Amino acid sequence: MNELEITDATVADAAALVAIYTPYVLNTAITFEYEVPTVEEFARRIADITREYPYLVARIGGKVCGYCYAHAFNRRAAYHWAVETSIYVATDERGHHVGRALYEAMQQRLSRQGILNMYACITWKDADDEYVTHASPAFHARLGFKKVAHFHKCGYKFGRWYDVIWMEKFIGRHQG
Hints:
By secondary structure, the protein is α+β, with helices and mostly antiparallel strands. The protein has a single domain, classed as Gcn5-related N-acetyltransferase (GNAT) (Aminopeptidase), CATH 3.40.630.30. It contains 4 helices and 7 strands; from the N terminus they run βααβββαβαββ. It has a 7-stranded mixed sheet, with helices on both faces. Strand 4, helix 3 and strand 5 form a beta-alpha-beta unit.
């Protein structure tokens, strides 16, 4: 059996990450992007994020099967200890602990970097529909995230309005 490997993303991974992200853009409201980014745009995003924050890739047998990254929650100095995280797993690997492994590695990296708060912005609908389910909030809750905010009708995709919730996890001790 092939072992799961977590590594740093590079711009060379951009095409594989776009392949994972494409079904989320085209078939879900998990992301509010309407159009699939180009490989060049994805490479630019990876390069921008990795200047300051971790961008991780999961591989099984050398094949990319998921990724996650962190970026500034807010650019103002007082927010320096908080990040927003995003995660995407290949549809055929969901439910196989790839997401958990990515987030555990991300949390370790962020902790070493001095980050104290991880946030996740998650699409929400009171009842599941064909474009979004409660899988992501449940996944984050299993990893220790707590819901801290709910914004109503703030994203519009597929001809309907979606809410977003914010979930938070403290990964370090707040002093002072």
